[in-house]
Amino acid sequence: MEVKIGVQYAPRELVLESKLSPKDLSDTIDQAVKDGGVLRLEDDKGRQVIVPVDKIAYIETAATNVRSVGFTVDK
Question: CA 71, CA 63: separation in Å to the nearest integer?
Answer without folding.
Answer: 24
